[in-house]
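Comment on this:
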Amino acid sequence: MIALAVALLAGGVLLATTHRTPTPPPARAPAVAAMEKPSVAISAKLADGTDYTPLFYVTASVSVGTAPTPDDTADRLLLRSPTGDRELHRLAKGRYAQFLGFTAAAGRLYWAESSALAGGGYETRLWTAAVEGTDPPASLTADMGAAVFFDSEFDLVVADGRVHWIAAAPDSDTRTELRSVAVAGGPVTTVAFEGRFRHTAWPWLLSVDDAAPLVLADPLTGERRTVTKAAAESVVCTPTWCRSMVTAAGDRYLFDVRHPDGSARRRVPGNLNAITVDAAIGGRYEIFTEYRNERSTLVAYDLDTSTMQTLTENTGVSAARAGVVWWAEDGEWRSVDLR
Protein backbone atom coordinates (compact mmCIF):
# COMPACT_ATOMS: atom_id res chain seq x y z
CA MET A 1 0.00 0.00 0.00
CA ILE A 2 1.25 3.45 -0.74
CA ALA A 3 -0.27 6.83 0.08
CA LEU A 4 0.56 9.85 -2.00
CA ALA A 5 -0.13 12.96 0.05
CA VAL A 6 0.95 15.96 -1.97
CA ALA A 7 -2.62 17.27 -1.80
CA LEU A 8 -2.20 17.88 1.94
CA LEU A 9 0.33 20.53 1.03
CA ALA A 10 -1.32 21.97 -2.04
CA GLY A 11 -0.66 25.46 -0.73
CA GLY A 12 2.89 25.08 -1.96
CA VAL A 13 2.12 24.19 -5.57
CA LEU A 14 -0.62 26.29 -7.16
CA LEU A 15 -0.81 28.17 -10.44
CA ALA A 16 -0.93 31.92 -10.21
CA THR A 17 -2.89 34.35 -12.37
CA THR A 18 -2.02 37.86 -13.41
CA HIS A 19 -4.24 39.94 -11.09
CA ARG A 20 -2.30 42.26 -8.80
CA THR A 21 -3.79 42.98 -5.37
CA PRO A 22 -2.69 46.14 -3.52
CA THR A 23 -3.69 44.93 -0.03
CA PRO A 24 -1.65 43.91 1.86
CA PRO A 25 0.95 46.18 0.23
CA PRO A 26 3.35 44.10 -1.86
CA ALA A 27 7.06 44.41 -1.29
CA ARG A 28 8.85 46.55 -3.79
CA ALA A 29 10.06 44.28 -6.55
CA PRO A 30 13.86 44.22 -6.68
CA ALA A 31 15.75 44.16 -9.93
CA VAL A 32 15.94 40.54 -11.05
CA ALA A 33 19.48 39.57 -11.97
CA ALA A 34 20.61 36.37 -13.63
CA MET A 35 21.66 33.55 -11.34
CA GLU A 36 25.37 33.83 -10.57
CA LYS A 37 25.88 30.07 -10.29
CA PRO A 38 26.31 28.39 -13.69
CA SER A 39 23.91 25.70 -14.85
CA VAL A 40 24.87 22.22 -16.02
CA ALA A 41 23.14 20.83 -19.13
CA ILE A 42 22.50 17.25 -20.27
CA SER A 43 20.49 15.97 -23.20
CA ALA A 44 16.87 15.11 -22.51
CA LYS A 45 17.39 12.00 -24.66
CA LEU A 46 19.62 9.03 -23.98
CA ALA A 47 21.97 7.56 -26.57
CA ASP A 48 19.31 4.95 -27.41
CA GLY A 49 16.84 7.73 -28.31
CA THR A 50 14.53 7.35 -25.30
CA ASP A 51 13.36 10.31 -23.22
CA TYR A 52 15.03 10.80 -19.85
CA THR A 53 13.18 12.42 -16.92
CA PRO A 54 15.30 13.35 -13.89
CA LEU A 55 13.72 12.76 -10.48
CA PHE A 56 16.63 13.73 -8.22
CA TYR A 57 20.04 15.36 -8.41
CA VAL A 58 22.87 14.28 -6.13
CA THR A 59 24.87 17.22 -7.47
CA ALA A 60 24.27 19.50 -10.44
CA SER A 61 26.13 17.00 -12.66
CA VAL A 62 24.87 13.70 -11.19
CA SER A 63 21.17 12.91 -11.63
CA VAL A 64 18.83 9.97 -11.14
CA GLY A 65 15.77 9.52 -13.31
CA THR A 66 13.67 7.29 -15.48
CA ALA A 67 13.48 6.28 -19.12
CA PRO A 68 11.58 3.53 -20.91
CA THR A 69 13.44 0.75 -22.65
CA PRO A 70 13.72 1.28 -26.44
CA ASP A 71 10.98 -1.32 -27.01
CA ASP A 72 8.82 0.37 -24.33
CA THR A 73 8.30 -2.86 -22.37
CA ALA A 74 9.95 -1.72 -19.13
CA ASP A 75 10.72 1.34 -17.04
CA ARG A 76 14.36 1.94 -16.13
CA LEU A 77 15.88 3.84 -13.24
CA LEU A 78 19.18 5.38 -14.34
CA LEU A 79 22.03 7.31 -12.76
CA ARG A 80 23.67 9.81 -15.13
CA SER A 81 27.03 11.41 -14.42
CA PRO A 82 29.94 12.86 -16.40
CA THR A 83 31.48 9.37 -16.48
CA GLY A 84 28.46 7.80 -18.18
CA ASP A 85 24.98 6.38 -17.69
CA ARG A 86 24.30 3.46 -15.35
CA GLU A 87 21.12 1.44 -15.07
CA LEU A 88 20.12 0.88 -11.45
CA HIS A 89 16.90 -1.08 -11.87
CA ARG A 90 14.16 -1.90 -14.33
CA LEU A 91 10.60 -3.09 -13.94
CA ALA A 92 8.17 -4.31 -16.60
CA LYS A 93 5.56 -1.76 -17.67
CA GLY A 94 2.86 -4.01 -16.21
CA ARG A 95 4.33 -3.45 -12.74
CA TYR A 96 3.35 0.27 -12.88
CA ALA A 97 6.51 1.26 -11.06
CA GLN A 98 6.83 4.47 -9.08
CA PHE A 99 10.25 5.65 -7.89
CA LEU A 100 9.96 7.84 -4.81
CA GLY A 101 11.66 9.55 -1.88
CA PHE A 102 15.16 9.98 -3.28
CA THR A 103 17.93 11.10 -0.97
CA ALA A 104 21.70 10.72 -0.82
CA ALA A 105 24.13 10.49 2.07
CA ALA A 106 27.76 9.42 2.51
CA GLY A 107 28.17 8.49 -1.14
CA ARG A 108 25.03 6.37 -1.32
CA LEU A 109 21.66 6.86 -2.95
CA TYR A 110 18.42 5.75 -1.27
CA TRP A 111 14.96 5.48 -2.79
CA ALA A 112 11.63 3.65 -2.55
CA GLU A 113 9.92 1.68 -5.29
CA SER A 114 6.21 0.97 -5.39
CA SER A 115 5.10 -1.65 -7.90
CA ALA A 116 2.27 -4.06 -8.61
CA LEU A 117 2.72 -7.68 -7.57
CA ALA A 118 1.95 -10.58 -9.87
CA GLY A 119 -0.62 -11.97 -7.44
CA GLY A 120 -2.35 -8.64 -6.92
CA GLY A 121 -1.76 -5.68 -4.67
CA TYR A 122 1.27 -3.45 -4.43
CA GLU A 123 4.64 -3.59 -2.70
CA THR A 124 6.78 -0.67 -1.57
CA ARG A 125 10.45 -1.54 -1.15
CA LEU A 126 13.44 0.51 0.02
CA TRP A 127 16.63 0.39 -2.06
CA THR A 128 20.18 1.71 -1.89
CA ALA A 129 23.08 1.96 -4.33
CA ALA A 130 26.52 3.54 -4.35
CA VAL A 131 26.63 6.79 -6.29
CA GLU A 132 29.95 5.77 -7.81
CA GLY A 133 31.06 2.33 -8.94
CA THR A 134 29.25 -0.58 -10.53
CA ASP A 135 27.98 -2.63 -7.57
CA PRO A 136 24.32 -3.59 -8.03
CA PRO A 137 21.65 -1.91 -5.87
CA ALA A 138 20.57 -3.65 -2.67
CA SER A 139 17.09 -3.94 -1.20
CA LEU A 140 17.02 -2.81 2.44
CA THR A 141 13.45 -3.80 3.31
CA ALA A 142 9.94 -4.31 2.00
CA ASP A 143 8.50 -3.74 5.49
CA MET A 144 7.59 -0.11 4.86
CA GLY A 145 4.03 -0.17 6.16
CA ALA A 146 1.58 2.26 4.56
CA ALA A 147 4.43 4.53 3.48
CA VAL A 148 3.44 8.13 2.77
CA PHE A 149 5.32 10.25 0.23
CA PHE A 150 4.73 13.99 -0.01
CA ASP A 151 7.07 14.73 -2.95
CA SER A 152 9.35 16.30 -0.33
CA GLU A 153 13.11 16.17 -0.02
CA PHE A 154 12.47 14.75 3.47
CA ASP A 155 10.35 11.77 2.40
CA LEU A 156 13.40 9.64 3.22
CA VAL A 157 15.86 10.96 5.79
CA VAL A 158 19.24 9.38 6.54
CA ALA A 159 20.31 10.12 10.12
CA ASP A 160 22.00 8.32 13.00
CA GLY A 161 22.92 5.37 10.79
CA ARG A 162 19.34 4.71 9.74
CA VAL A 163 16.93 5.52 6.90
CA HIS A 164 13.71 7.09 8.23
CA TRP A 165 10.28 7.45 6.63
CA ILE A 166 6.65 8.17 7.52
CA ALA A 167 3.83 5.62 7.38
CA ALA A 168 0.12 5.99 8.05
CA ALA A 169 -1.20 4.16 11.08
CA PRO A 170 -3.88 1.49 10.51
CA ASP A 171 -7.56 2.37 10.14
CA SER A 172 -8.59 5.78 11.52
CA ASP A 173 -5.75 6.03 14.05
CA THR A 174 -4.63 9.66 14.35
CA ARG A 175 -1.04 8.69 15.09
CA THR A 176 1.88 8.67 12.65
CA GLU A 177 4.24 5.73 12.33
CA LEU A 178 7.89 6.79 12.42
CA ARG A 179 9.68 3.92 10.70
CA SER A 180 13.38 3.33 10.15
CA VAL A 181 15.88 0.69 9.12
CA ALA A 182 19.68 0.54 9.39
CA VAL A 183 21.51 1.82 6.30
CA ALA A 184 22.83 -1.72 5.83
CA GLY A 185 19.35 -3.26 6.16
CA GLY A 186 17.81 -5.37 8.90
CA PRO A 187 14.66 -5.23 11.03
CA VAL A 188 12.44 -2.16 10.83
CA THR A 189 11.78 -0.10 13.95
CA THR A 190 8.33 1.48 14.28
CA VAL A 191 7.38 4.21 16.76
CA ALA A 192 3.82 5.55 17.02
CA PHE A 193 3.76 9.36 17.33
CA GLU A 194 0.60 11.24 18.23
CA GLY A 195 -0.76 13.39 15.40
CA ARG A 196 -0.35 13.41 11.63
CA PHE A 197 3.13 14.51 10.58
CA ARG A 198 5.76 14.42 7.87
CA HIS A 199 9.51 14.80 8.16
CA THR A 200 11.25 18.12 7.74
CA ALA A 201 14.86 19.01 8.64
CA TRP A 202 16.05 16.25 10.98
CA PRO A 203 14.91 15.47 13.61
CA TRP A 204 11.87 17.71 13.27
CA LEU A 205 8.40 16.79 12.04
CA LEU A 206 5.79 19.12 10.50
CA SER A 207 2.09 18.49 11.08
CA VAL A 208 -0.14 17.88 8.04
CA ASP A 209 -3.58 17.94 9.67
CA ASP A 210 -5.55 20.87 8.23
CA ALA A 211 -8.09 20.58 11.05
CA ALA A 212 -5.46 21.14 13.76
CA PRO A 213 -2.90 23.89 14.53
CA LEU A 214 0.34 23.79 12.54
CA VAL A 215 3.02 22.23 14.73
CA LEU A 216 6.74 21.52 14.52
CA ALA A 217 7.65 18.57 16.73
CA ASP A 218 10.92 16.96 17.78
CA PRO A 219 10.23 13.29 18.55
CA LEU A 220 13.65 12.86 20.16
CA THR A 221 13.05 15.46 22.89
CA GLY A 222 9.26 15.70 22.86
CA GLU A 223 9.36 19.44 22.14
CA ARG A 224 6.41 20.85 20.20
CA ARG A 225 6.22 24.35 18.73
CA THR A 226 2.99 25.82 17.41
CA VAL A 227 3.58 27.81 14.23
CA THR A 228 1.77 31.14 14.13
CA LYS A 229 -0.51 31.45 11.10
CA ALA A 230 -3.71 33.15 10.01
CA ALA A 231 -6.76 31.07 9.17
CA ALA A 232 -6.47 31.97 5.48
CA GLU A 233 -2.79 31.01 5.19
CA SER A 234 -1.36 27.77 3.83
CA VAL A 235 2.03 27.36 5.47
CA VAL A 236 4.97 24.96 5.10
CA CYS A 237 7.99 25.13 7.40
CA THR A 238 11.37 23.89 8.41
CA PRO A 239 12.49 24.61 12.00
CA THR A 240 14.09 27.82 10.64
CA TRP A 241 11.95 29.13 7.76
CA CYS A 242 8.31 29.12 6.68
CA ARG A 243 6.64 29.96 3.39
CA SER A 244 3.03 31.08 3.57
CA MET A 245 0.49 31.55 0.82
CA VAL A 246 -2.84 33.34 0.76
CA THR A 247 -5.33 33.64 -2.06
CA ALA A 248 -6.06 37.22 -3.10
CA ALA A 249 -8.75 38.64 -5.35
CA GLY A 250 -8.67 37.33 -8.89
CA ASP A 251 -7.20 34.01 -7.72
CA ARG A 252 -3.75 35.46 -7.40
CA TYR A 253 -1.50 33.85 -4.80
CA LEU A 254 0.60 35.97 -2.47
CA PHE A 255 3.67 34.49 -0.80
CA ASP A 256 5.40 35.57 2.41
CA VAL A 257 8.50 34.14 4.05
CA ARG A 258 9.24 34.30 7.78
CA HIS A 259 10.45 32.31 10.76
CA PRO A 260 8.12 29.81 12.49
CA ASP A 261 7.50 32.28 15.34
CA GLY A 262 6.28 34.85 12.82
CA SER A 263 9.36 37.08 12.96
CA ALA A 264 11.25 38.52 9.95
CA ARG A 265 8.12 38.32 7.82
CA ARG A 266 8.28 39.78 4.32
CA ARG A 267 6.38 39.58 1.04
CA VAL A 268 8.01 37.90 -1.95
CA PRO A 269 7.13 40.17 -4.89
CA GLY A 270 5.87 38.92 -8.21
CA ASN A 271 3.19 36.88 -9.93
CA LEU A 272 4.46 33.63 -8.47
CA ASN A 273 3.88 29.91 -8.11
CA ALA A 274 5.95 27.82 -5.68
CA ILE A 275 7.29 24.66 -7.31
CA THR A 276 8.01 22.59 -4.17
CA VAL A 277 6.18 21.45 -1.04
CA ASP A 278 9.25 22.31 1.06
CA ALA A 279 10.34 25.65 2.45
CA ALA A 280 13.88 26.99 2.13
CA ILE A 281 15.52 24.77 -0.50
CA GLY A 282 19.12 24.23 0.52
CA GLY A 283 18.29 26.15 3.70
CA ARG A 284 18.35 29.45 1.83
CA TYR A 285 16.19 29.72 -1.31
CA GLU A 286 12.54 29.74 -2.28
CA ILE A 287 12.02 28.62 -5.87
CA PHE A 288 9.13 29.98 -7.93
CA THR A 289 7.90 30.21 -11.46
CA GLU A 290 6.84 33.73 -12.43
CA TYR A 291 4.67 34.60 -15.40
CA ARG A 292 6.65 37.33 -17.11
CA ASN A 293 6.29 38.67 -20.67
CA GLU A 294 3.94 35.80 -21.56
CA ARG A 295 6.55 33.24 -20.52
CA SER A 296 7.15 31.10 -17.45
CA THR A 297 10.34 32.31 -15.78
CA LEU A 298 12.09 30.26 -13.08
CA VAL A 299 13.40 32.38 -10.20
CA ALA A 300 15.17 31.84 -6.88
CA TYR A 301 14.42 34.12 -3.92
CA ASP A 302 17.39 34.41 -1.54
CA LEU A 303 16.17 34.34 2.06
CA ASP A 304 19.46 35.79 3.33
CA THR A 305 19.52 38.86 1.06
CA SER A 306 15.83 39.26 0.07
CA THR A 307 16.84 39.35 -3.60
CA MET A 308 15.54 37.47 -6.61
CA GLN A 309 17.67 35.79 -9.27
CA THR A 310 16.53 34.41 -12.61
CA LEU A 311 17.45 30.82 -13.42
CA THR A 312 15.85 30.74 -16.86
CA GLU A 313 13.37 32.92 -18.73
CA ASN A 314 11.53 30.14 -20.53
CA THR A 315 10.69 26.83 -18.90
CA GLY A 316 7.79 24.43 -18.69
CA VAL A 317 8.84 21.64 -16.32
CA SER A 318 10.89 22.46 -13.23
CA ALA A 319 11.65 20.94 -9.82
CA ALA A 320 13.89 21.44 -6.80
CA ARG A 321 15.11 19.19 -4.03
CA ALA A 322 17.95 19.08 -1.52
CA GLY A 323 19.57 22.27 -2.78
CA VAL A 324 19.48 21.52 -6.52
CA VAL A 325 17.05 23.09 -9.01
CA TRP A 326 16.45 21.59 -12.44
CA TRP A 327 14.32 22.40 -15.45
CA ALA A 328 13.63 21.49 -19.09
CA GLU A 329 14.83 23.90 -21.76
CA ASP A 330 15.42 23.49 -25.50
CA GLY A 331 15.76 19.70 -25.51
CA GLU A 332 17.99 19.65 -22.44
CA TRP A 333 17.75 19.28 -18.70
CA ARG A 334 19.56 22.08 -16.88
CA SER A 335 20.46 22.14 -13.21
CA VAL A 336 21.99 24.49 -10.64
CA ASP A 337 23.34 23.48 -7.24
CA LEU A 338 22.37 26.25 -4.80
CA ARG A 339 24.21 24.81 -1.80
